[in-house]
Specification:
The protein is an all-alpha fold. It has two domains: 58 residues, Homeodomain-like (Arc Repressor Mutant, subunit A, Orthogonal Bundle); 122 residues. It contains nine helices and two strands, in the order E-H-H-H-H-H-H-E-H-H-H. The protein has a two-stranded parallel ribbon.
């Protein structure tokens, strides 16, 4: 399990404003993601990142005070990239099976750029409580996305029950994708088809369960 950091998370020293500085930061973030994916947390050092990014260690420290601030930025970018591909897949005007297939492909694509990254972010790299905040902007948008899908196929506006269903559905998707990433099986086509089938059945069928 990843180490939790209870105190305030380490953040970037400053935001890059000019095109050249933005390109430098982008190179460092990409280098860091590649190292985490290929070498794990033990191989992740600021010197190694600077070397792979082709920048001086001084340039790296201009933006990132330590490697925790860098891994936080990598995690933030990963979440944003995942949400960005999902925003392009909407349930309106398409049958549940097509929506589910497109969604699975999009989520898999977001996790395939650096296949080993998500395993390290989940199991090895330290993280702050901010990334477990149920009221974060990301978490609200993420669950609202699934609630919208549930409500769309039930032909109504989202209601509180749909948000409960959204949590169940999103946790199911996350669990399958994240465990596939842990096992190095993110590109397994059978897994992707079964996940799409699970989403489809959940969206198109009545969600009624007998209480005992």
């Amino acid at each position: 399990m990843s180490t939790r950091i209870a105190k305030q998370q380490s953040v970037m020293r400053k935001e890059p404003r000019q095109a050249r500085s933005r390109a430098t930061v982008e190179a460092m973030v990409e280098a860091g993601a590649r190292i985490l994916s290929d070498e794990g947390w033990t191989g992740f050092t600021t010197n190694r990142v600077a070397e792979l990014a082709g920048v001086s260690i001084g340039s790296l420290y201009q933006y990132f005070p330590d490697k925790l601030s860098l891994v936080n930025e990598i995690r933030h970018r990963h979440l944003n990239d995942s949400m960005a591909v999902m925003r392009k897949i909407r349930p309106h005007g398409v049958p549940p099976a097509k929506f589910a297939t497109q969604l699975v492909k999009a989520v898999v694509a977001a996790h395939s750029l650096y296949p080993g990254l998500h395993r390290v972010l989940l199991d090895e790299a330290p993280s702050s409580e901010e990334y477990r905040n149920p009221n974060s902007a990301f978490e609200i948008e993420y669950l609202s996305y699934y609630a919208e899908a549930v409500a769309t196929y039930q032909k109504r506006q989202p209601n509180p029950a749909d948000h409960v269903a959204a949590r169940v559905l999103s946790d199911a998707v996350d669990g399958v994708i994240h465990n596939a990433a842990r096992r190095g099986a993110i590109d397994n086509q059978a897994m992707q088809r079964e996940l799409a089938r699970l989403i489809t059945l959940y969206l198109e069928g009545p969600r009624q369960i007998r209480e005992y």
